[in-house]
């Protein structure tokens, strides 16, 4: 609803005892009476003290009065209407005002940013007044630079009354209404016009038209947000699910049976690139991550941003040429052909490169052997070609779809390559990153004045996050109406890859634990890394906990309109889920004693019972 309020001329009106003029304004359609109370200190003027205010109320008991207290020490002033009101601490003042059966409002000067208003105070008041002139003399020029503050408040608090006061009239109402103001204070524009009713009607119509537009845009935006969050949730969960199964290895019990059957125990394994994370590494992970994150923050702050992103793009392009084909292979195996990896390759290119450090103090048989030994067939070359096209497209267009595809490949490969050796390591990792995420999202603002995590995430131009547009419907409507011209700018919801990979490796560990249980209870050569038909109580609980944790993150982010550290919700959810299942099943001791041996190459030695 739009509210139109005649302003400061009330002082002159009542000084001349022209009560009929005020009644005329109300009859012309004014909703409220806006009354300024000035003390000569906060502003140089002295207008409308408590006695006049009381007189106004007695003469017009049914009129709604909006009192703007422009005083230096409001806590020392008392306004008596129907009850005693003492102004003091803002939140306490709001409580007292509302206890006196009145609405509470907050006013900010043109130089005060909207961000300076604490959220708890904005939630407590009924209205926020944005001054569009400096408090004091009337007839000042409208300050249009205040309009972004109005738009910001309207976006963050859609149901809050947002008021503008100062220089508002027929020539400036469109800017106010378009920004989202629904309470308009107009003094000179109304009282000096020979036909105030037409001015009030015009102001109200323009304001109400914009309110309808803003409501429609918000409904459209909320629908787009739901689509974006659903898309991000689906992508992240699919990546964790597929990555968990792709991380499986042939159980130890099956490898022992292969040895007994004179078969290669590691025939379907490629563990040369696996990175096993121990508890020592888990402790160091948040520290290393913090050092890297803060270094990037400083680099973006003091060095050339374009040069940094160029180096990052080069690095990720090279890494992508290796990562994307392997990640695509996991997807093919999961959805299409589980024999894809071990299919006999009749023609292939074999590459062997030795790269060893020679220690002359050790005999030759004790020398550490490193290097590259890989085979590439036509499928590998096809996926490599796809990778080149994908990376080239992304470098040229920076499309969010290509960025997401590359990012998902990195995430999928991260889940499959990083193996936790035990649940103890997993708990340490999630616990450490729990505090890491909270500090760099929230705590860093107290040190450097901004959220380091958010700052780096928005400046880091690389596929390390999942993006999904929040204004899909707006873009679609614009395409239908205007084609490719004047397309609205995309507004994205995002989720960092760390919020997929870190919980993902823990969910994968839960699946490994389920696999160990099942393979030991029903051993057989059929139980390979691609055999998925076994009971998965720990994986199911942990995966559901991940989904619920992500939903909670998105919900809190939507409600508070602020970036959230996802691991604040994901770490406890995933950790507690497996502990709860182990407690119910009476397997807590086994859970903490579990050591994932499948992530290590099998020696091929089997102790035979006599």
Automatic annotation (TrEMBL):
One of its GO terms (biological process) is signal peptide processing. Catalyzes the reversible epimerization of D-ribulose 5-phosphate to D-xylulose 5-phosphate. It catalyses: D-ribulose 5-phosphate = D-xylulose 5-phosphate. Homodimer. Its main location: endoplasmic reticulum. It holds the Pfam family Ribul_P_3_epim. SMART domains: PSN (SM00730). It is a multi-pass membrane protein. Belongs to the ribulose-phosphate 3-epimerase family. This is Ribulose-phosphate 3-epimerase. InterPro entries: Aldolase_TIM, Peptidase_A22B_SPP, Preselin/SPP, Ribul_P_3_epim-like, RibuloseP-bd_barrel. The chain crosses the membrane at residues 227-248, 281-300, 312-336, 378-396, 492-511, 538-560, 566-584. It is found in: Endoplasmic reticulum membrane. Gene3D superfamilies: Aldolase class I. GO terms for cellular component: cytoplasmic side of endoplasmic reticulum membrane; lumenal side of endoplasmic reticulum membrane. It is an enzyme of class 5 (isomerase). The keyword Manganese applies. Its EC number is 5.1.3.1. One of its GO terms (molecular function) is metal ion binding. Pathway: Carbohydrate degradation; pentose phosphate pathway; D-xylulose 5-phosphate from D-ribulose 5-phosphate (non-oxidative stage): step 1/1. Keywords: Carbohydrate metabolism, Cobalt, Endoplasmic reticulum, Hydrolase, Iron, Isomerase, Manganese, Membrane, Metal-binding, Transmembrane, Transmembrane helix, Zinc.
């Amino acid at each position: 609803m739009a509210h139109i309020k005649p302003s400061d001329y009330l002082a002159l009106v009542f000084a001349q005892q022209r009560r009929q003029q005020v009644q005329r304004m109300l009859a012309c359609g004014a909703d409220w009476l806006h009354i300024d109370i000035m003390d000569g200190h906060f502003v140089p003027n002295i207008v409308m003290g408590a006695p006049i205010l009381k007189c106004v109320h007695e003469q017009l008991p049914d009129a709604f009065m909006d009192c703007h207290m422009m005083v230096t020490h409001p806590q020392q002033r008392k306004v008596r209407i129907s009850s005693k009101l003492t102004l003091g601490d803002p939140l306490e003042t709001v409580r007292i005002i509302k206890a006196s059966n009145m609405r509470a409002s907050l006013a900010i000067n043109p130089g005060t940013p909207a961000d300076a208003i604490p959220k708890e105070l904005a939630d407590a008041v009924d209205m926020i007044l944005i001054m569009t002139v400096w408090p004091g003399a009337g007839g000042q020029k409208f300050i249009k630079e205040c309009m972004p503050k109005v738009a910001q408040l309207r976006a963050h608090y859609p149901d809050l009354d947002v008021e503008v006061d100062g220089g508002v009239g027929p020539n400036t109402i469109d800017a106010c209404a378009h920004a989202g103001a629904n309470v308009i204070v107009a003094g000179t524009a109304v009282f000096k016009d020979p036909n105030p009713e037409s001015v009030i009607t015009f102001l109200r119509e323009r304001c109400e038209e914009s309110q309808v537009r803003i409501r429609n845009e918000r409904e459209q935006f909320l629908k787009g947000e739901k689509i974006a969050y659903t898309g991000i949730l689906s992508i992240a969960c699919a990546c964790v699910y597929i990555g968990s199964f792709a991380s499986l290895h042939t159980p130890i019990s099956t490898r022992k049976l292969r040895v007994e059957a004179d078969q290669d125990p590691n025939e379907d394994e490629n563990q040369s690139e696996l990175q096993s994370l121990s508890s020592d590494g888990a402790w160091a992970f948040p520290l290393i991550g913090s050092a890297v994150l803060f270094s990037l923050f400083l680099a973006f702050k003091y060095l050339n941003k374009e040069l940094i992103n160029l180096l990052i793009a080069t690095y990720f392009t090279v890494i992508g040429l290796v990562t994307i084909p392997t990640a695509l292979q996991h997807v093919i195996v999961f959805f299409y052909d589980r024999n894809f990896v071990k299919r006999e390759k009749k023609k292939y290119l074999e590459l062997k490169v030795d790269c060893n450090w020679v220690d002359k103090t050790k005999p030759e048989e004790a020398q550490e052997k490193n290097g590259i030994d890989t085979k590439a067939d036509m499928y590998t070359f096809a996926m490599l070609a796809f990778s080149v096209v994908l990376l080239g497209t992304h470098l040229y267009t920076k499309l969010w779809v290509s960025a997401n595809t590359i990012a998902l490949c990195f995430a999928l490969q991260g889940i499959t390559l990083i193996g936790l050796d035990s649940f103890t390591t997993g708990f340490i990792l999630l616990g450490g990153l729990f505090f890491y995420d909270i500090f760099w999202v929230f705590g860093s603002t107290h040190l450097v004045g901004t959220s380091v995590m958010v700052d780096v995430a928005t400046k880091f131009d690389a596929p390390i996050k999942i993006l999904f547009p929040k204004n899909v419907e707006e873009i679609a409507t614009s395409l239908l109406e205007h084609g490719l011209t004047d397309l609205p700018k995309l507004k994205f919801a995002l989720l960092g890859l760390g919020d997929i990979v870190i919980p993902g490796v823990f969910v994968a560990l839960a699946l490994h634990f389920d696999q160990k249980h099942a393979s030991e209870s029903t051993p057989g050569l059929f139980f390979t890394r691609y055999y998925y038909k076994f009971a998965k109580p720990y994986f199911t609980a942990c995966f559901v906990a991940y989904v619920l944790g992500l939903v909670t993150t998105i919900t809190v982010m939507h409600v508070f309109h602020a970036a959230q550290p996802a691991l604040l919700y994901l770490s406890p959810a995933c950790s507690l889920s497996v502990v709860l299942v182990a407690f119910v099943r009476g397997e807590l001791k086994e859970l903490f004693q579990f050591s994932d041996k499948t992530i290590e190459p099998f020696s091929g030695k089997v102790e035979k019972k006599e």
